[in-house]
Amino acid sequence: xxxxxxxxxxxxxxxxxxxxxxxxxxxxxxxxxxxxxxxxxxxxxxxxxxxxxxxxxxxxxxxxxxxxxxxxxxxxxxxxxxxxxxxxxxxxxxxxxxxxxxxxxxxxxxxxxxxxxxxxxxxxxxxxxxxxxxxxxxxxxxxxxxxxxxxxxxxxxxxxxxxxxxxxxxxx
Length: 172
Description:
By secondary structure, the protein is of the alpha+beta class. Helix content is 37%, strand content 28%. It has 2 domains: 2-48, no CATH class; 57-145, 3-Layer(aba) Sandwich (Vanillyl-alcohol Oxidase, Chain A, domain 3), CATH 3.40.462. The chain is built from 5 helices and 7 strands, in the order ββαββαββαβαα. The longest helix has 18 residues, at 68-85.
């Protein structure tokens, strides 16, 4: 997450003072700005630790049909994997619908390395009903993982019509 790479922030506090929040200065405010809540001040600048864009970005999804017991076991397996085994190049999330479960992710390395990392995990989770894997450039991988294109402009008219229809109970 981007907030994991935050180094410092300049903040205008409620009393009007301008302070720096970082691991070394105003640590409580720094912690709050990284996800504890809102309304701790007005952030006027952010400093992040940057890194070169990875050259190999493997986007993947693996889909499962699990019953309640299997899902509970899978959640425990995934939590254990995230806490003990998951490598730094791995980025994944679990997507749950009323119909199925999907493990979606981006691996910053080769497809062979991804397969070596996922094989033991998938052996514990059961047989998926579908898997998709594609190697992409950095921006395409970010876009794919965010479920949207970075090149398509946001259509405010569509959103405006949707909220208007919601107000009249047409969409729900």
